[in-house]
C-alpha cells in the first residue's frame, strides 16, 4: 500500500517542490508548514497505511493526479458558502474542509440542500476536529496554504478540472441500515430536537429514547432513494429535554433508528470490495466509527484517509465512509 | 442519450416518491431532496422547477455510466 502518513519535514519538502496537497493533521504539525499550494484541516486520527492511528506529529497527505488542471483554492464563510456548488468546476471535482462547530459548519450542514446547484457537481470532504481530550479547549481549524494561516470559522475548497475522458464519482459506505421500528419525523431542521413525531404522534424525544431504552450509539437513518443518510446522536440532555445531533435532522424526512452493527471491520471490508468500482482517490471516515468500532490498529481494507468530525459527500453525513473514485468515461 | 422533456410523467412520479433505487449517489441525494421539496409545496411551479433541476442534472452528467443506468431505471430502459 502507498504511503499516506508523512512526517513534518517530508511535507515541508513536498510543499517546497511545488506540489499541491490536501492535508490532515494535528494543529501542532500543520502550524509548522510554510505557505504553498495546499489546504488542510485539523485532526489527529487517521486510517493510515498500517490501519487506524492516532498521531499529533504525522500528516495525512493526498496529492493530485497529474491529469488535473486549473487548480483553485478558495475560502468560504457562513455568508458565502451558499455559492460552493455553483462555483464548482463544470467538469472536475472539489474537496472541501469545514472547521467544526463554527458558523460556517452550521450553515453548510443545515442549508446545503437548498443551495443553488446542490449535488450537481462532485463535492467531497470533511469536518475538521481535534484530539478528543482537547475538545472544548482547542478549536478545530482549517488552513488555506496560500497564507498558511489557521482559520477557526470557514470552509476551504480546492477544486480542479478533469479531462473529458475522466469523471469523479462519489459514494458512501454506511454500515447502518434503517431498522424496522417506529417511523420518526421532526418538525424543524436543526442540530437538536425536543419533540419527535412517532408513527404520527408527537412526543418528547428524550422521553421516547428513555422509555424505549434506546442505545444512541447507532444513528438515525433516512432512506433517500437507496442512500442511507445517518444523523448521529451527540447528547441526550435530560434536564432540558432536548436531543443534540452531530448533523442536522430535516423536517419532512422520515427517520428510523439504525439496526446495530457488529463486526464493523469484517462487514466494511466486504462492502468496500463490493461497491467501490475503481481505485479510491480520496476517502474519509467518521470519528464515531473509529471509536465505537475500536478501529485503532485495525485496517479497513485498503482504504485510508482522515478520521473526521463529519463526512461530506455533497452534504454532511455522520458515521459514514465517504469516498471518491476517478473513472474513465 | 436523449433526456426526456419536462412533460414526461416519469419525472413527476419521482417527485411523488416512486420507490426506485439508484446507483449514482448524487441521483439518490438530489431526487430525495427534490421529493421532499415537492411534498412540502406540491404546486405546479415547484413541480416544474424540480423537474427542470432533474433534467439539468442528468444532462450535465449523462456521460457517466452510473447516471445512464439511473436514467434507464427511471424510464424503464427505454432510453438510448
* SSE string of chain B: HHHH
Number of strands of chain A: 27
Largest sheet of chain B: none
Largest sheet geometry of chain A = 6 strands, mixed
In quaternary terms, these chains amount to heterodimer
What does this 3D model show about the protein?
The complex is a heterodimer of chains A (329) and B (80). With 329 residues, chain A is mostly beta strands. Helix content of chain A is 14%, strand content 40%. In chain A, the strands form 6 sheets. A 6-stranded mixed β-sheet of chain A has the order 1-6-2-3-10-11. Chain A has a 6-stranded mixed β-sheet with strand order 5-4-24-23-27-13. In chain A, strands 7-12-8-9-25-26 form a 6-stranded mixed β-sheet, with helices on one face. In chain A, strand 10 (142-144) and strand 11 (149-151) form a beta hairpin. The longest helix of chain A is centred in the C-terminal third of the chain and has 12 residues, at 264-275. The radius of gyration of chain A is 19 Å and the shape is globular. The two termini of chain A are 26 Å apart. The model of chain A has no long low-confidence stretch (mean pLDDT 93). Chain B is an all-alpha fold. Chain B contains 4 helices and no strands. Chain B has helices at 9-15, 25-40, 44-61, 65-74. The longest helix of chain B is centred in the middle third of the chain and has 18 residues, at 44-61. The radius of gyration of chain B is 12 Å and the shape is globular. The chains are: A mainly beta (329), B mainly alpha (80).
